[in-house]
Amino acid sequence: MATPAKRPRAAGPGGGEPDCDAVAGFLRWCARVGLQLSPKVAVSRQGTVAGYGMLARESVQPGELLFAVPRAALLAPHTCAIGSLLERERGALQSQSGWVPLLLALLHELQAPASLWSPYFALWPELGRLEHPMFWPEEERRRLLKGTGVPEAVEKDLANIRSEYHSIVLPFMEAHPDLFSPSVRSLELYHQLVAVVMAYSFQEPLEEEEEEKEPNSPLMVPAADILNHLAKHNANLEYSADYLRMVATQPIPKGHEIFNTYGQMANWQLMHMYGFVEPYPDNTDDTADIQMVTVREAALQGTKDEAERLLLWERWDFLCKLEMVGEEGAFVIGREEVLTQEELATTLKVLCMPAEEFQEYKDEDGWDEDEKEEDNLTITNIPSLNISWRRLLRDSVLLTLQTYATDLKTEQDLLTNKEVYAKLSWREQQALQVRYGQKMILHHLLELTS
User: Fold this and answer.
1) Alpha carbon distance 196, 103 (integer Å)
2) What kind and span of H or E run contains 287?
């Protein structure tokens, strides 16, 4: 089994109960609310990769039920004590994130002395010790994660959090002072709860016939959020009308930890949303991004005069019209596949094609389906691409590598020297793994395009 990433986790939003008391209180609460835990599993801080986790007391076979959470035990806007108020005010609570109703539910329940979910909160991470990069000093975040995409994602988060809090959340709490004590009217606490929702909430998938609808709002799922993440996970959450069920997907030997998956997450996404990564090479879902505007920049570097530059901008504008590229978009390259293959293939083809062919392309508004089939772009066929495509892709990779503060050899030296690596801080180690995984993918592309 791969070596899982560790993530700090401590009991209680305010320090919490001692570990054994917190677990015992949580188990009593499970029995009270009808949350069914298999006798084959145990909640524990011992033998887990990070804080609380779930272990197999006995060997478990694929398909076996590990636990079932009744929908009434979920912490969601409609189940909390102020659910009817949140429903009435739903229109005023709409936001870009869609998380405001759940965050208000958490703010209310955290300070409610008789909250149904108090024993559940005792197993939460300590809010003041969350390791998301949004809590790092800006200088440290930029220094350690430059080039990875994380600093830019965090800056957007922080701006949205401030805007959401001051324009929607604080006015709502001030309008209902009987429901929200002064202790929870705090941007800092709101910031921390956004991180908890980011890292520990679940989003129920839409049914096939509902795919045009807005995504479902997030909800907190006690017991399910205790499980740590692994790309090569051995359990999966299933949704039904009355219960959410965690089911084993692989044989789990006695004493081994039970892992869920938080989705197909690259290390930069795990770092951004959860504050931890999977050490290289364990994360089979890792990716590297090449910003779409970087490909444009690489293409512009190859132009010889103003006429060629104008033609290239015309090509770019047409790609924008086709919705193949955008100013903030990225081409996503995995370890074994190009996740944005249609967009990248079309972009390389359009930017590299002869001028006459481009005019035909414009007149026809793109290729027909047969021609698109010929342009399938995979990791394995990169060496056989047209030489102009390979050159443009290579130049784009080289420009991308320049955005990092260090080169691949520096990262390799740190990773291979165990004594030096051990002296790095938690944040330095995690950031190093993010950078290294991305650079390995980008350097593989360099080999394929040479």
Assistant:
1) 10
2) strand 287-291
Question: Mind listing the pLDDT tens digit for each residue in 198-229?
Answer: 999 999 998 877 767 788 899 999 999 999 98
Task: Provide CB contacts within 8 A for 115, sequence distance 6+.
Answer: 81, 109, 121
Handedness of CA 104, 105, 107, 108 (dihedral sign): positive
Q: Is 241 exposed, middle or buried (0-12, 13-18, 19+ CB in 10 A)?
A: exposed
Looking up tokens 């994380």 gives 150
User: Please, are residues 21 and 145 in contact by the beta-carbon 8 Å criterion?
Assistant: no
370-385 tens-digit pLDDT: 555 456 899 999 999 9
- In 148-200, which residue ranges form alpha helices assigned H by DSSP? 150-164, 170-175, 187-200
Cα–Cα distance between 357 and 382 in angstroms, integer? 22
Please confirm whether the linkage preceding 281 is cis (ω < 30° from 0).
Answer: yes
Residues 6+ apart with CB under 8 A from 152: none
Q: At what angle do helices 267-274 and 187-200 cross, to 10 degrees?
A: 140
Cβ neighbors of 432 (< 8 A, separation 6 or more) are 144, 411, 414, 415, 421, 424
Helix (H) or strand (E) holding 145: helix 138-145
Q: What one-character-per-residue DSSP string does 403-419 give? A: TSSS-HHHHHHHHH-HH
Q: Using CA atoms, how far apart are residues 379 and 285, in angstroms rounded to an integer?
A: 15
What is the rounded distance in angstroms from the CA atom of residue 41 to the CA atom of residue 296?
Answer: 53
Q: Is 34 left (phi over 0), alpha (psi -120 to 50) or beta?
A: left
Alpha carbons 53 and 227: distance in angstroms, whole number: 5
User: Over the stretch 417-435, which tens digit does the pLDDT of each residue have?
Assistant: 999 999 999 999 999 999 9
Q: How far apart are CA 40 and CA 60, in angstroms?
A: 7
CA distance 244 to 70: 6
Query: d(Cα 361, Cα 325) in Å, to the nearest integer?
Result: 16
CA–CA gap between residue 437 and residue 269 (Å, rounded) = 12
DSSP 8-state class, residue 168: I
pTM of the predicted model, to two decimals? Answer: 0.91
Residue labelled with tokens 């958490």: 106
Q: In residues, how long is the chain?
A: 450
